Automatic annotation (TrEMBL), chain B:
One Pfam family matching this protein: ABC_tran
Region (Disordered): 267-290
GO terms of molecular function: ATP binding; ATP hydrolysis activity; ATPase-coupled transmembrane transporter activity
InterPro entries in the cross-refs: AAA+_ATPase, ABC_transporter-like_ATP-bd, ABC_transporter-like_CS, ABC_transpr_CbiO/EcfA_su, ECF_ABC_transporter_ATP-bd, P-loop_NTPase
Stored Gene3D superfamilies: P-loop containing nucleotide triphosphate hydrolases
Keyword Glycoprotein appears in the UniProt entry: no
Protein name: ATP-binding cassette domain-containing protein
Record SUPFAM superfamilies: P-loop containing nucleoside triphosphate hydrolases
Length: 368, 543
C-alpha cells in the first residue's frame, strides 16, 4: 500500500515529516550503543539523505566528517584521561601525571585498556550517529522550510535561528576562499596566527552580507507591525518559551539514565501542552498579517515516513524492554557484539522511506 | 511618482554632506538612470527613495522624500514594501528563501496577501520576467542574470509601482545584462512601472532612459539624456565619438549615431586602419613566458575547466571573455595555483606556481581577485603596505613606493591612514595591485577589475595595465566589459562551458562577434575601429 507512491509526481515532502523522522532516528541512536546497529543506522540515514535530499549541493559529507571527529575526540580523550578505569587488558601505558586529590576520578595518562577503548568507541559512535541524523534533517528539508511551522509567537526567534543556520555554510565558503587567497599574499603557513589573519576579512564579509540580507528583508515588508495586541503576544511568547524549556528538560531526562522517568515524562507532557496551547489559539498559528504561499501537503508519503520511523523506534524499545542489555554490548568482559535481529530489521525499515517518498523535483535522475 | 524636495543627507556629523539640496521629480512610468563618478552619492540617493536611508543606515536626512504620496519620514521601508521594490547591488545577498517560486512569494507572505491573490501575482511576476521555466530551481544554481531577474520579480510581485535598482547589471555578462535591461524596459512600457536605477556602463542603459540623473559631489542634475550628455562627466563611447565628430546634441543610441555617421565613415575609409595595436602582419607572436597546457579543473562532479591551452607572451594584455560561469575565474585561479587542478601544467618562466611555496609563487604570478578586499586586511593603507613588505620579504617601504608610482594620490600623507573599506572601488583595486606587484610577478591576473568603476577610473586602469605590459609583464584580465577590452587588450580569449572557444587579436575577435562588439565598432561598421581613441588619432593624422 505504501509502495503505491513510488511513481508519484516529484515534490518536496512536508518538512515536519522529515524532521520527525530524523529525530526518531536520533532517539534510536541515543538508545543503542551497539556498534553494528549504529553502523546500519548511519548507513540508512545517509542513504535516505543522498536519495531524497532536497538540494543536490547540500551533502552529508560535512556531517560525516563531524561525526568522525567526534568519535576521534572521544577515543583520544579516553586514552589521555581514562587511566584504565575499567578492564584489565592493558594495551599500552601512557606516561602518568599525578594529579592532586581534589580532581577525584579524573586521571591523566596511565594504562590504556582495550575495554575502556571499546566503551569510548561505542559511546562516541552513538553521539556521532545522532549528529548524522541532525545533518540528515537539514539535508532532507531545509530549515527555512521548517520555519513556516514555527509557532507565531516564536517567529522572530525562529527567523534569527534559521538565518543563522543557513548562514553558516556561506561563512564556510567565505572562509575557504579567504584561506585560499592567503596564498596570493605569499602566505601558506598554518597555525592560529594565520587563522587570525583570515578571520577579519571573513567576518567583515559576513557582516556586509547580513546587512544586505537585513536590508532586503526590511524593504520587502518583513516584520511589519502586526494586528496582534502587544499584551497577548507577550503572554503567548512566555507560554511557548516555558513550554519549550519543559520539553527540553523532559527529553533530556528521558534520554539520560538516572532521572526518574515519571518526572521527566511529566515535564515533557506539560511543556508540550503549554507550547501547543499557544499554537492552537485562534490566529496564533502564524504571525498576524502573514500568510503562506503554498502550504505543504500531508499525504500518504508523509504518513509512510512517520510509520517507518515509528516502527524503528518501537523495534528498539521492544528489544530493550525484553532484554535491557541487548543494545549495550558488554565491554567488561569484552565480547564481540552480536546483532539483535529485531532491532536491525527495525532500523532497516527506516531506510524504506527512500522508496516510499516522491523524488525531490530537483534531482529526477537520482531515482532509485 | 518620486519627489525629492531639498534633500540633504549626512551620515556622520564630522563628515561632509553626501547629498546636498537635491530636488528631483520622476514621473509615473518613467525610467530614470542615475549616473555619475563613483562615490558621489548615487547609492545614497537610491537608499533615500527606498526609505532605507535613514531608517536602516542611520544618518540625518533634511528635506522631504515622497514616493507615491507616502513620506519616507513617517513610513519605514517595510511600510513601503507594497509600493517600492528595492534590489541591492548583490541580489543573491538579499535572498531569503531557497527556490525561485518561494522567493517571489516571500514579499507577498510578509504583506499577508490572501492565497488566491498570491498565486496570481506570483504567476504574473514569473511571466513578466520570463522566469516560468526556472520556477522550481534553486536560487544558488542560477546565473547572475537570472538571479537579478528573480530579485526584480520578487519585488514586483508585491505590486510595487516603483522599482529602485542599484547597479542591476554590474556583475553580468553582456547577454545577461541585456536580458535584465529588456525586462525592465518591458515593465516600464507595459505596466507603467516607475524605475530609478544606477548604472556605470551608460552604453547599455542610456538608450532606455527617459530621464538622466547626474550625481556629482552630492549635487544632482536631471533632464533629457542627450542634452545632459553635453555637460556630463561620465560619457559612453558613442557620446565621446559624437563629441569628436562634432554632432550636437549627441546621439545616445548606436542607431542614431549610425544615421549621422555617414560622413565620418567616409572620411575614415581613407585613414590607416583600426586600432593602434592592430598586430603587425607576419607570424604570430613567439610563444612567450607563460605556457598553459591541458589545464583541467573539476569541482565536485562537474568539470569546470576542460583542457585549456594558452600562451601569453610577455608585454601583452590578454582579455578573457565569456558568460558568467564560463570558467574564466577558474582558469585564473588555477593558473595562480589557488585551486587544485586535475591535470595540466602551467609554466611561468620555467616553473609551475602550483609546485612552489607561496612566497616564491607570488614572484611568478600575481592574482587580483574580483573582490580586492580578499587581499586586504590591515586597517589602513599604510599598514597594508607594511604588511605586504613583510609578506613578500622585500625591503621595507617597497610597497609604499610601488603605490606611489601607480597611484601618487593614494600614497600621499593624508590618504594613507584611510581604512581600505573607505576607499573607492578604483582606489581599493589600485592598492591591491600595488600589494601584488611588489613581489615582482611575471604574470599579472585580474578578475573582473572594472566592476563599480566609472569611465575615468577605467581609463586610468587601462593606461596602468598598458604600462605594466610595456615594462614586460604578461597581463590577463577576465572581464565582461567590452569597451574596456577594446581599450586595453591586444588579444582576446573567449570561453564557454569551461573551454576556450576562440583566441586571437582583439580586433578580430571583437569585430567578428555579435555580443562582444564595442559601440564604436557598431557605429562605424564595416570599418575596423574599436575605440574613440583610435578614431581620434586617425583624424588627427589626417588633419
Amino acid at each position: 500500500m505504501i509502495m503505491g507512491t513510488v511513481r508519484a509526481v516529484p515534490r518536496l515532502l512536508h518538512p515536519l515529516a522529515w524532521w520527525m523522522w530524523a529525530v526518531a532516528m536520533a532517539v534510536v541512536a541515543n538508545r543503542t550503543r551497539n556498534p553494528l546497529i549504529l553502523v546500519i543506522l548511519v548507513a540508512a540515514v545517509v542513504l535516505v539523505a543522498e536519495l531524497r535530499g532536497e538540494d543536490r549541493d547540500r551533502r552529508m559529507t560535512l556531517f560525516l566528517w563531524l561525526a568522525a571527529v567526534v568519535v576521534g575526540i572521544r577515543v583520544v580523550a579516553q586514552i589521555v584521561f581514562g587511566g584504565g578505569a575499567i578492564g584489565t587488558t592493558v594495551l599500552f601505558r601512557m606516561p602518568q601525571v599525578p594529579l592532586p586529590e581534589w580532581t577525584g576520578a579524573v586521571r591523566l595518562g596511565g594504562p590504556v585498556t582495550l575495554e575502556e577503548l571499546a566503551d569510548a568507541l561505542y559511546g562516541g559512535m552513538s553521539v556521532a550517529a545522532m549528529i548524522v541524523c541532525l545533518g540528515a534533517a537539514t539535508v532532507l528539508a531545509s530549515p527555512r522550510r521548517l520555519l513556516r511551522y514555527v509557532p507565531a509567537t516564536l517567529y522572530e526567534v525562529g527567523t534569527t535561528l534559521v538565518v543563522g543556520l543557513t548562514y553558516a555554510p556561506m561563512l564556510m565558503d567565505d572562509a575557504r576562499t579567504a584561506w585560499a587567497a592567503r596564498r596570493l599574499r605569499g602566505r601558506d603557513g598554518r597555525g592560529p596566527r594565520e587563522v587570525a589573519r583570515v578571520a577579519a576579512p571573513v567576518l567583515s564579509a559576513g557582516l556586509r552580507r547580513s546587512m544586505a540580507l537585513a536590508a532586503s528583508m526590511e524593504s520587502r515588508g518583513y516584520g511589519r507591525p502586526g494586528a496582534g495586541r502587544q499584551g497577548t503576544r507577550r503572554v503567548a511568547g512566555a507560554m511557548v518559551l516555558t513550554g519549550m524549556v519543559g520539553v527540553a528538560l523532559g527529553v533530556f531526562g528521558l534520554m539520560s539514565a538516572g532521572t526518574s522517568r515519571p518526572v521527566a515524562a511529566g515535564c515533557l507532557l506539560v511543556g508540550a501542552a503549554l507550547a501547543t496551547a499557544t499554537v492552537w489559539r485562534p490566529g496564533g498559528r502564524r504571525p498576524p498579517g502573514r500568510t503562506v504561499y503554498r502550504p505543504d501537503r500531508w499525504s500518504s508519503a508523509e504518513w509512510s515516513v512517520l510509520i517507518c520511523a515509528g516502527v524503528s523506534v518501537a523495534a528498539v524499545f521492544v528489544v530493550v524492554a525484553a532484554d535491557p542489555g541487548a543494545l549495550t554490548p558488554s565491554t567488561v568482559p569484552l565480547s564481540v557484539p552480536d546483532l539483535p535481529w529485531p532491532a536491525a530489521l527495525g532500523v532497516g525499515v527506516a531506510a524504506m522511506v527512500a522508496w516510499t517518498t516522491p523524488v525531490p523535483p530537483d534531482r529526477m535522475e537520482h531515482r532509485p | 511618482m518620486i519627489l525629492l524636495d531639498q534633500v540633504s543627507v549626512r551620515y556622520r556629523r564630522s563628515e561632509p554632506l553626501v547629498l546636498r539640496n537635491v530636488d528631483l521629480t520622476v514621473g509615473e512610468g518613467e525610467l530614470a538612470v542615475v549616473a555619475g563618478p563613483t562615490g558621489t552619492g548615487k547609492s545614497t540617493l537610491l537608499g533615500c527613495v527606498a526609505g532605507l536611508v535613514p531608517h536602516f543606515t542611520g544618518g540625518v536626512v533634511h528635506g522631504r522624500v515622497v514616493v507615491g504620496g507616502r513620506d519616507t519620514r513617517t513610513h519605514r521601508p517595510g511600510d513601503l514594501a507594497d509600493l517600492i521594490g528595492y534590489v541591492g547591488q548583490d541580489p543573491a545577498a538579499g535572498f531569503v528563501t531557497d527556490t525561485v517560486e518561494d522567493e517571489v512569494a516571500y514579499g507577498l507572505e510578509c504583506l499577508g496577501t490572501a492565497q488566491p491573490v498570491m498565486r496570481r501575482r506570483v504567476e504574473d511576476a514569473l511571466d513578466l520576467l520570463s522566469l516560468a521555466a526556472l520556477r522550481s530551481r534553486r536560487l544558488r544554481g542560477l546565473s547572475g542574470g537570472e538571479r537579478q531577474r528573480v530579485a526584480i520579480a520578487a519585488v514586483l510581485a508585491t505590486g510595487s509601482r516603483v522599482l529602485v535598482l542599484d547597479e542591476p547589471t554590474s556583475a553580468l555578462d553582456p547577454g545577461g545584462a541585456e536580458d535584465v535591461l529588456a525586462a525592465v524596459h518591458r515593465l516600464v512600457h507595459d505596466l507603467g512601472v516607475t524605475v530609478l536605477m544606477t548604472e556605470h556602463r551608460l552604453e547599455r542603459a542610456l538608450q532606455f532612459a527617459d530621464q538622466l540623473v547626474l550625481v556629482e559631489d552630492g549635487r544632482v542634475l536631471a533632464g533629457e539624456p542627450s542634452l545632459l550628455m553635453e555637460v556630463s562627466a561620465v560619457r559612453p563611447p558613442v557620446v565621446e565619438l559624437a563629441r569628436l565628430a562634432g554632432w550636437s546634441p549627441p546621439p545616445v543610441t548606436v542607431r542614431d549615431a549610425r544615421r549621422r555617421a555617414d560622413r565620418l565613415r567616409h572620411d575614415l575609409a581613407a585613414a590607416p586602419p583600426s586600432s593602434p595595436r592592430e598586430p603587425a602582419p607576419g607570424p604570430p607572436p613567439a610563444p612567450g613566458r607563460v605556457r598553459i597546457r591541458g589545464l583541467t579543473v573539476r569541482r565536485g562532479r562537474r568539470q569546470v575547466l576542460h583542457d585549456a591551452d594558452l600562451d601569453i607572451p610577455a608585454g601583452v594584455v590578454v582579455a578573457l571573455m565569456g558568460r558568467n560561469g564560463a570558467g574564466k575565474s577558474t582558469l585564473l585561479s588555477a593558473s595562480a595555483g589557488l585551486v587544485a587542478r586535475e591535470g595540466g601544467v602551467v609554466d611561468v618562466d620555467g616553473a609551475d606556481p602550483a609546485d612552489l611555496p607561496a612566497q616564491q609563487a607570488i614572484r611568478l604570478v600575481g592574482l587580483v581577485p574580483d573582490d580586492p578586499r580578499l587581499l586586504l586586511r590591515a586597517s589602513s593603507v599604510a599598514d597594508e603596505c607594511v604588511g605586504a613588505d613583510d609578506d613578500t620579504g622585500v625591503t621595507p617601504g617597497a610597497t609604499r613606493r610601488m603605490l606611489a608610482r601607480i597611484a601618487p594620490g593614494l600614497a600621499g600623507a593624508h590618504r594613507v591612514n584611510h581604512h581600505p573599506d573607505d576607499l573607492s572601488e578604483g582606489e581599493r583595486l589600485t592598492l591591491a595591485m600595488a600589494v601584488i606587484l611588489t613581489a615582482g610577478p611575471s604574470l599579472l591576473l585580474l578578475d573582473e577589475p572594472t566592476r563599480g568603476l566609472d569611465y575615468a577610473a577605467k581609463s586610468r586602469l587601462s593606461a596602468m595595465l598598458r604600462s605594466f605590459a610595456a615594462s614586460g609583464l604578461a597581463v590577463v584580465v577576465a572581464t565582461h566589459d567590452v569597451e574596456f577590452v577594446a581599450d586595453v587588450a591586444d588579444r582576446v580569449v573567449t570561453m564557454a562551458g569551461g573551454r576556450i572557444v576562440a583566441e586571437g587579436p582583439a580586433a578580430d575577435v571583437l569585430l567578428s562577434s555579435y555580443v562582444h562588439t564595442p559601440q564604436v565598432a557598431k557605429v562605424l561598421r564595416p570599418h575596423r575601429w574599436l575605440t574613440v581613441g583610435a578614431v581620434a588619432s586617425a583624424m588627427k593624422g589626417e588633419g
